[in-house]
Amino acid sequence: MEDSDTAVVRQVRAGDKDAFRVLVERHSHALFRLAYRMTGNEHDADDVVQETFLRAFRHLNRFEPARSFGAWLHRITVNCSINLLHQRPPQVETSQACTPLAADALDSLAATTPSPDGAAIHAELQQRVQAALGRLSAGERTAFVLRHFEGESIEHIGAVLGVGTSAAKQYVFRGVQKVRRELEPLLSLTR
Amino acid sequence: MKHLSDEQLVFHHYQVSDDGHSVEAHLAGCEACRARYQALQDVLSAIPVTPVPERSADYGRQVWQRLQPRLDECVVPFWRRLFERPSLPSLPRWWLAPAMTALVLAAFLVGLFWSRSRAQDTLASRLRQELRQELVADFQSALNRSQERSSNALAALEARLANDSKAEARQLVQALHDMLGRARAEDRQMLLAMFRNWEEDNAAAYVTLRQDLEELASLTDKEMRRARSILVELAAQTPPPDPPFRINK
Lengths: 191, 249
Description:
The complex is a heterodimer. Chain A is mainly α. Chain A contains 9 helices and no strands. In chain A, helix 3 crosses helix 4, helix 4 crosses helix 8 and helix 5 packs antiparallel against helix 6. Chain B folds into 2 domains: 47 residues, no CATH class; 145 residues. Chain B is mostly helical.
């Protein structure tokens, strides 16, 4: 029978460093997904996964066994992603970094928008999506990404953010409102 | 009719609404809210859910291989482990600051009382010695004066009785000498008793002073313990802080 995360954590805490491998192999894919959604860049996401596990190992004694180890790891991933995003120089041009969030949507928008100014609107919309996400607070961005892209439950989002379900819902709501304010004027032009 | 709020519409879209059925019913009957809901969905659907790049099935093993050599860098110094014991996970990080402050304060108070107690001891001992010397000097002086006066009186009496019958005079002088000797011994006893009484009183006062100081130190210690337990309780009741996010501009 597969050991639970908490049991493995106990082993690692007792000095069995190699037991940490089980946790790494078990959670790497999920963390990569989240890191990619947060950073929008494949290589950055790999770095974030590494950094997440390093931090988790270093601070394993802070993990409370009563809580979800997965949510705890996700929380570290979010922090690492936010740190990385803040270290990045501001990017306004269209790049690989923003494609996960907007490029495909803009392509599909272009296909369904017969406007002659479609290309210009694309570029503008793409920038606005990035700008909107950039203006979200860390909590709003995390909640929005987890709910909108990953379809995570409000309870999980709350656990990742370290808040209750009501607060988690508010983070989602505020994130959506800010994104709407950025996108609606442009979208109205395409209609 | 009360229209739906933006909040209700967003929660309904993400299926996290507490009153999904009533929102649904309202949307069915309210064209304005239905239009607003459609506008919201248009915006949110314009944001695509793009696929995440694939990672191979052994991605976890790859991560571990890169991670393993770096784990040795994570050797935590003993003093950090001390503060990260599993028995203290529920305490938020901020407990360290007041705890350290309390510790420093306690050390300061202990040092203060310790040095005060030592100073009191030294002062009491010195005063006691000085008072004893003074008393002994007074006693010696009184004794000398008494002896001198007795000797003078005896010499004068001997001279006055020189012409009297020698036998009678000798008896008288002897009686007087004995009487003076007894009086001197009584004086000595009396002064010694006085000195002993003073010493006992002084010792009792010293013991009382010491008890007072010990009681004060004990009370202070109790207060410190109580303050520390309140701090620990407060720390346990305080929820962990939000992750150290940075606020985006």
